[in-house]
Amino acid sequence: MTESNLTKTNKRNNYAPTTIGKVLAVLECFSMHHPRLTAAEIGSQLGLTSSTLYRYLNAMENEGYIEREPGTSYYVIGLRVVEFAGIALGRLEVRRHGQIELDGLSERLKMNANLGVLYRGDTFHLCYSVQTEVDQLYTILGRRTPAHCTAMGKAMLAHIPRQEAHEIVDMYGFKTLSENSIATHEQLDSALDEVKRTGYAVDRGEGRSATWCVASPVREQGGKVVAAMSVSSSRERVELHIEQIAKDVSFFANRLSYRLGYYES
C-alpha cells in the first residue's frame, strides 16, 4: 500500500479532528476482500503504535463499531455500523421501491438482477435479486465497482453532462478490472454515445471477462436519472438475446421510475 488509510482520510477531511480521523481510518481498513483483520494488520495499515491503536480499538469495541470474532484474534465491523447503514438505506426511496421490480425482472429473465446508484465515481450496489449461485462478494450491499466498468454506471454517466462524466472518471481514475475495461476518454465517449442512441447500456466483459450485463436508467420525478437497473449472465446468454433482454430491463426500470413519480410524456 503506497499511502496509508489514515493519510487518505486526512486528505479528504483536513478539517476533521484527529481522533475522528483515526476512528474513520480504522473502519476504512475493512473491505469486502478483508472483512476481518487483526490488530497488527490494522496497525500496519495506519502506522499507529500499539498503545495508541489499542486505545482506539477498545473504545470502538465498547461502542459497538467493531467486534472481536469469538475465539480468534480478529476484529470485524460491528452491528452499530450496520444500524447506521440501515438508516442510510431506509431513506433511499429508490431502494424501498426497487426490490419488487428487481425480483420481477430476475424472475422474467432467470438472470441475476441489480440496482445501483452513482457514488464517487463508482456504481454503488443497493440491492440484488439472485437466480443463480454467485460469489457472496458480488451480493454484498454497498459493493462498489468503477462506474465506467459497469453497465449500470454507463447508463447513469450517459445522462449527465459529458464534461461532468469525464471529470468524475478523471477524479477517481480509469481503473481497469479486465482486459475489456474502458481505459480512455475516447472509449468512454463511444460507450456513452451508444447508451444515448439505444436507451440502454451494455457491459461486455468489462467488469468480469466472462460476464455481460445490460442496464437501463431509473428516473425520479422530473426526469433526472437517479439509479440504474441491470441483469447479468454469461456472454452467450446475453449476446444471443440482447435486444429482448434490453426491452425487459427497460420495462422494469420504467416501472420503478413510475413508482418514483416519473411519468414519461
Task: Provide an overview of this structure.
- Keywords: DNA-binding, Transcription, Transcription regulation.
- This is IclR family transcriptional regulator.
- It holds the Pfam family HTH_IclR.
- GO terms for molecular function: DNA binding; DNA-binding transcription factor activity.
- Residues 80-262 form the IclR-ED domain.
- This protein has 265 residues and is of the alpha+beta class.
- It folds into two domains: 5-78, Arc Repressor Mutant, subunit A, CATH 1.10.10; 92-259, 2-Layer Sandwich (Beta-Lactamase).
- 47% of the residues lie in helices and 20% in strands.
- It contains eleven helices and nine strands.
- A six-stranded antiparallel beta sheet has the order 6-5-4-9-8-7. It has a three-stranded antiparallel beta sheet with strand order 1-3-2.
- A hairpin with a 5-residue loop joins strand 8 (211-219) and strand 9.
- The longest helix is centred in the C-terminal third of the chain and has 18 residues, at 242-259.
- It is elongated.
- Mean pLDDT is 90; it is low at 1-13.
Notable characteristics:
single chain; alpha+beta; Beta-Lactamase; 6-stranded antiparallel sheet; 3-stranded antiparallel sheet; 11 helices; HTH_MetabolicPath_Reg
CATH topology of the largest domain: Beta-Lactamase
Structural class: alpha+beta
- The CATH superfamily of the largest domain turns out to be GAF domain
Helical coverage, percent range:
40-55%
CA-CA gap between termini = 51 Å
Which CATH top level class of the largest domain fits?
Alpha Beta
Q: What portion of the residues fall into strands of 2 or more residues?
A: 15-25%
Q: Extract low-pLDDT stretches.
A: 1-13
C-alpha geometry: elongated
User: What's the mean pLDDT score?
Assistant: 90
Largest sheet: 6 strands, antiparallel
Total beta strand runs: 9
> In DSSP terms, counting alpha (H) and pi (I) runs of 4 or more, how many helices?
11
Organism: Paenibacillus piri
GO molecular function: DNA binding; DNA-binding transcription factor activity
Protein name: IclR family transcriptional regulator
InterPro entries: ArsR-like_HTH, GAF-like_dom_sf, HTH_MetabolicPath_Reg, Tscrpt_reg_IclR_C, Tscrpt_reg_IclR_N, WH-like_DNA-bd_sf, WH_DNA-bd_sf
